[in-house]
Amino acid sequence: VQLQASGGGLVQAGGSLRLSCAASGRTFSNYHMSWFRQAPGKEREFVAAINWNAGSTFYADSVKGRFTISRDNAKNTVYLQMNSLKPDDTGVYFCYAFAGAPYWGRGTKVTVSS
Description:
The protein has 114 residues and is mostly beta strands. The chain is 0% helix and 53% strand. The chain contains no helices and 11 strands. It has strands spanning 3-6, 9-12, 17-23, 32-38, 45-50, 57-59, 67-72, 77-82, 91-98, 102-104, 108-113. Strand 4 (32-38) and strand 5 form a beta hairpin.
């Protein structure tokens, strides 16, 4: 399984970004997908997760009400819509898949300026 995240960038506080993660594999619809992030000098932390059929989603308390995770199984892609961004949301965002084993993608950098 290969994961390619994109969509990061520089945005002002209060702005929005949408991250995408394209996955390889013909059984993407079976994967549980998540987003994690790592701020400078901090450990990687969970942000959001979505189960295989998008029937369940989970969020870290710090992003509830601002971020939305979704997926398009026809496009083998998972998204993270990030609204009302704060400087504390700055970090490298990583896509994660569990498909019988854990897989990590290369991150995409998000910088939120105050």
